[in-house]
Amino acid sequence: MSGSKRGASFEDLETVPPHRVGEIVDGELYVSPRPAPLYARATSRLGMLLGKPFDLGEEGPGGWIILSEPELHLGNDALVPDLAGWRRERMPEMPHTAAVTLAPDWVCEVLSPSTAVLDREKKMKAYGREGVSHLWLLAPLQRSLEVYRLEHRHWER
C-alpha cells in the first residue's frame, strides 16, 4: 500500500489501475493491491454466512443490504471496505450509482499485511467520523475477529 498523493480528489481514483484498489482518506490517495486469495476467500465466506440470514432473510431476520467492496464516498473520503451493510430502513433501495454516499451501519475490513495499518488507523477513524455504528476487523492469519461498536463517537470493543 502506498500513500501517494496529498490533496487527492475523486477524479484521482480514475487513474488507479484496475488491478489495484484506490481509496482517499483524509485527503490522501492510498493505492493497495487487490486482496490475495486467502483474504478474498475470507471476505467471500463471511459475505455468504451473513448474506443468507441478514440480506436474504433466510433463517434469519433479514432487513439488511450487504455488499462486497462497495465504493463509499463519505464527505471527501473514498473508502472501499471489504464488506458493508445497511439496514433497509435507512437504505430501502440500492443506489444506481457506482459509489454509495450513505454511510453504512456496519463495515468489515479483512486485515492483510498490506492494509492493516490503513484499516486500523485512518479508515477506522473515518468510519467513526461518518457515524458507522459497527465495525469488524477480521484477521484470517491470526484467526481472529475484533468487534467494535461506536459509542459517543469512540470505538468500544
From TrEMBL:
Highest rank taxon of the organism:
Bacteria
InterPro entries (alphabetical) = Nuclease_put_TT1808, Restrct_endonuc-II-like, Uma2
Under the heading Pfam families, the entry gives: Uma2
Q: Which residues form the Putative restriction endonuclease domain?
A: 10-156
Q: Which residues cross the membrane?
A: none
Return the protein name.
Answer: Putative restriction endonuclease domain-containing protein
Organism of origin is: Cystobacter fuscus
